[in-house]
Fold this sequence. Notes:
This protein is α+β, with helices and mostly antiparallel strands. The chain is 40% helix and 28% strand. Strands 4-3-7-6-5 form a five-stranded antiparallel sheet, with helices on both faces. The chain has a two-stranded antiparallel sheet with strand order 1-2. The radius of gyration is 30 Å and the shape is elongated.
Amino acid sequence: LLMTGRRMLVNGHPFLVGIGVDITERKEAEAAVRESRQRLEFALQGGNLGVWDWFPETGAVTYGDTWADLLGYRPEEIEPTVDFFRQHVHPDDLPAVLERLTDHVEGRLPEYRSEHRLRTRSGSWKWVLDCGRIADTDEDGRVMRVTGVVSDVSKRKQAEEARQKFVLLADSSSEFIGICDLDLTPVYVNPAGIRMVGLSDLTTACRLKVQDYFCPEDQRFIQDEFFPRVLREGLFTD
Length: 238
């Protein structure tokens, strides 16, 4: 029950007027929303995903506990504004991030999706995948709320960067350099290697098995001894 009261004078006599409004349904709805959000937070914590809600009309943003934890903050240290987010996006990434957000809010993109760097509390940079969608609009179509999640993709980005460096070095090498999966299927052969075996391009090179790159008399050794030892010991030299 929501109670409001006011003192009034009627014919020179003071009276206290009170009004009671039944707000049970509203309170139950608010409790249901809180409970639903808590369940969502628990589910997202299992996947280490940080949830956020942005309210474009006011510039306010609510950040979940996991969002704060990803950057090394305590929840109470997070300023609930979009400016806090902008201040933590890497300057080189910020223009593209804001462009994608704007394109989604204005209907040019079906969703907001961005990989960018965020500054942690310690000052280091962490790569994240940030995704969101419009959650609420008013009767005039104005966007009232955008909801999204953020996840840490730093390890994947580091692996991609390491692979790119390796490929750059391998591409410039005059030696045969190749990469294969555990089924002994090539996934990369450098240009020098492709020329050495007389193939036309990387696509053709990756259609073969690793054994096919060796003389018939050496193929069983490669399959039964060389690669099993590499998998066991991490290195084979002979």
